[in-house]
Structure formats: C-alpha cells, structure tokens
Amino acid sequence: MAVPFIFHWWPKSAEMQQKRDEFRDDWTTLDLKAAHDLLAKQPGVDASRIGILGHCWGGRVAWLGAASDPRYKACAVFYGGRVKLPLGPGTPPAIALAGNIRCPLIGFFGNDDTNPSPADVDDYERALADAGVEHQFHRYDGAGHAFQSFDNPERYRPEASEDAWEKALAFFAGELKGSHTT
Hints:
This protein has a single domain, classed as Rossmann fold, CATH 3.40.50. The protein has a 4-stranded parallel sheet, with helices on both faces. Helix 3 links the parallel strand 1 (about 50-55) and strand 2 (about 75-80). Helix content is about 35%, strand content about 10%. By secondary structure, the protein is of the alpha/beta class.
C-alpha cells in the first residue's frame, strides 16, 4: 500500500483552507505517479495489479489518478466531491477527464450528501457512461457524507459502511486477480 501525502506542497502549519484554495491537480498527478512508481517497485508487488481508492477529497484524487495514469487497474471512489470543479490553473475539472479512465470504477455515495449531491453523482455516472468506462455506483438512503467515519456518530452509518466495504473488497479482488503469486 502507498498513501501519498498530497499536502506536502504547503508548510505543515498552513491552514486547511489555504490548501483547499491552492490545491492543484497537476501537482497531485505528480504525487500519484510517484506513489505508483514506488509501490510497483516493492518486493512482492505485482505492478500489473495496482488499484486506487479514496474517501472524500481522496475520492476525487482517486478519480483523478485513474484519469491521469492508465496503469491503474481498478478505482474506488467513496463520496468524492468537487469532481466537477477545476483545481489549479489551466486544469480541466476531473469529470472532464472521464474519457481517460481505462480501468473499471466503483463508487459509493450517500443520498443525503451535499458534496457530492445526488445530482452530482448522476453527472459522474453520465460522464463515465458517455466515456464508455465500466462502472458501478452504490447509493445509500439515510447516509450522508463520510458515512464510513466510525469515529463520528453523527455521520457513521454501520450498515452502509459494511455493505460498501464488502462490495469494494469484492470489486478489487475481482479486478486485481491474476495468475501471479507474489
């Protein structure tokens, strides 16, 4: 597993709002490429079977990673917002890159979420379908943003969380299976 620290571009003391305002997709794709390269070189890792997953902001990052690097074999987006926004000078919104995604994508969303809203999720699904990207979305009634945050009783929805994990694990097991035993 590799988890890139996508906020290294700012001092650790910088406010989160500054990072949010100045976030750049071009920097993030560099971080994701470096993380993939590092992971692919590790002993016991089959570089032909690497997927990407993210929650919230990381869900958007996972979408961006799948859209910017054809080496990913599977992508999971958990309630990723801001996919329809451009982040950084001269960059298109991540949703506009749907046609670059070369791997299957699975998404998990709460129907009570506002970022992304159900209408946003409809747009995500339409962009993937229009681009011919194999995808499946799962939506949960009574769940909002961060429904897997077990340490936040206001947001955590155990049934939706467990169902999403089971589906995500089965998805990755199916998409990343191979004949290698490394």
